[in-house]
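#dry-run=false #mode=assembly
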Amino acid sequence: MTALALALNKIEFSWSKQLTPLFAIDSLNLPQGKTLFIGGPSGCGKSSLLSLITGIQVAKQGTCCVLGVALNELSSSQRDRFRGERLGLIFQQFNLLPFLTVQENIELPSKLFSSRLSRSTQLFGSVQRHTDILCDALHLSHNLRQRQAHLLSVGEQQRVAAARALLGCPELIVADEPTSALDEENKVDFLNLLLTTAKAQNSSVVTVSHDMRIANQFDQQFLMPRTESNHVLA
Amino acid sequence: MFWLSLVFKSAWSRKYALSLVGLSVCLSVIVLLGVQQIRVDAKHSFSNALSGVDLVVGPRGSQTDLLLYSVFQLGTPTQNIPYADFQRIHQMDAVAWTIPIQLGDSFDGFPVMGTSVDFFKHYRSSGKPLVFQAGQAFQVPQNDSTSLLQVVVGAELAQTKKLKLNDEFALTHGYQAIAETTHTEHPFKLVGILKPTGTPIDRSVLISLEAFEALHMGWGFGLRPSAFDTKSELKSNLPSVEELQPNELTAVWVGLKNRTSVFSVRKAIESMKPTVASVPLMAVLPGVALDELWQIVKVVENALVLLGILVAVCSLLGVVSVLLVGLSARRKELAIYRSLGAGPALIFVVVTLESFLVCVVAIAAGVLGTQALIFVLQDFLLQGYGIQTRHGWPVYEAWVSIGLLLVCALVSSLLPAWRAYRMSLTDGLNPPN
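#status=ok
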């Protein structure tokens, strides 16, 4: 049986003072190594769903299993640790700490969690070597790596953020609107680079976006339900 | 360690805003510690002025007044003690030495002190004997009658009046320099300039008791002899030294052979039977009288320290407000920390660490700044205000203040940290744009 990177079952989510749920998902599964696109218009709860998957929030009902771990059974600090050790996150923008260099930004996960450091070391010999491989794959030149993050273009920032998310080979990459700040040409390039590099590491990818044009690049697509309805597109 | 370095880099990226608030904290610490240091040093300077003196003897009355006018030349004595009593004290078995003090005249506002050469032998400032930067002590007039009108001045006075050896100048009867009260007929010759001591001696003119007496021969009611001379002839010939035995003294400083006898000597002095012309005496322990004096000035001292504390607290609040305002702009940074696995509690610690570090650096700079400032201004404070400052390791009171400031800094750091904690809870990975 294939291991699941993501398994949502009868999930209902609402904010603390909300009477009706923001969204309800009957079932959503993603096998390990596959990619998932979650689409939907603004305000439908896409980012809230990512909060559930990353363990920032906990569903009021149902189970949210990520990489085989039921997040609602973990304490808040355990979920934080789980997120740092086993997930890689990419945001729409403002992904990087502006006061660090590109190299320092990429190496952050390995500084924070020894498990990320040891995976890079085991699989690639060293963190530096893994960083070099990721930078080469994501077209980040050597000169760029010592540059302060705030001096980069948006496209460069997104690629650095992808490299950081992939360092230490987390089993799941979660991306929130990763292409919305990019122009059309860079959007496709970035997605290709991200998905190819993740596949090379056997990392699953969950991406949330309102841009349905990129949906067909993913193995699975999921449209956020409007309160009660939900359906898997493919 | 990683988070510490991250905090440092994050703070460094906002170095201009943080250095401004840090500067305000640093300056307020300098104000607070400077006030404390100068307060303590001023007290030391006062104590040093009587270093080695076991008893100050004067007419019975307020011991604070006696101390103020006889040692610090503040205020004016209302009564004198007979010279005979000085001799009786001098002859006591337990007494090692005595320094007679006669006050009342001035030189351009600087007090004139009549004393004996024993003053130069026994007086100690901070436990150290007097040292001359030029010249020497005046001679004993009995040994050399031509040396009667010799004068020694303190360092501050010499610098202010630009005096040098062998300069001649006239002293003033009392403290108001008008023609009728100036001893122009008997100018003094400067024979010695003392090194700074940080005591009122720096502002004093020192002459022999005989010279002091000679100046006042024939004077009455504060007026020169010519005022009583119908022929208006100036009596300019000085009497012989043998005729110049003083009748009265303002005070006597006493040094004992053994300090343990201080209370018995005090009792003996205060029990001395007054003669017809004399008044009952009072012997004051300088430390006790100084404590009384500190009680009087304590309100002002406390007001100054309170002012310093308020300035420091305002600056710390300034740091808090700047960090609070800055937090809104840092919500994305906090969200990135969250995405990397940092929990709200860790973010609380990180922000606390940051604001505490800013305060610690500013306080440390303030401590160093205070010492540097005192080092730079030590001559100015000594010459201008007679305060002998000590730079280097801060005084005990300063360490207490530094400790309290650090506690205040830590407490005030908790406010932006708590705000960051709440923000990271509500924002999660999605801070507002």
